Amino acid sequence: MFAKRLFLAGAFAAGAALATSAQAHAKLQSSDPAAGSIVATAPRQIRLKFNEAVEPAFSKIILSDDKNADIKLPHVEVDKADPSVMTATLPALGHGTFRVQWTAMTHDSHKTKGDFTFQVK
């Protein structure tokens, strides 16, 4: 009887863990430039690393300046070799504060959003 209860408890715990991981959302693990950073020279790209793969068709990066005007990004893509990485090629940026807004959708259709700023001296 004890073995049966132990087995059922283990099965329940395993099922709960699987259900939790199946409903996970993409979380931003790191960015380059880093959130809140002050850089001496303007970056040539934005690189976002998530904790899981994101869907290219439904994931995006938007960049705006300190006047809240959107800056056209020539190329945004999810890395084919590592689909947990999304990059955006940047035009020449001047000095100022820039806001990065991102949207990431995972393979199980969960969408997350976030934003951060960085500054170019």
UniProtKB/TrEMBL annotation:
Belongs to the CopC family. This is Copper homeostasis periplasmic binding protein CopC. Residues 25-120 form the CopC domain. Residues 1-26 form the signal peptide. It is found in: Periplasm. Its main location: periplasm. It holds the Pfam family CopC. InterPro entries: CopC-like, CopC/D, CopC_dom, Cu-Rt/internalin_Ig-like, Ig_E-set. Coiled coil: none annotated. Keywords: Copper, Metal-binding, Periplasm, Signal. The keyword Secreted does not apply.
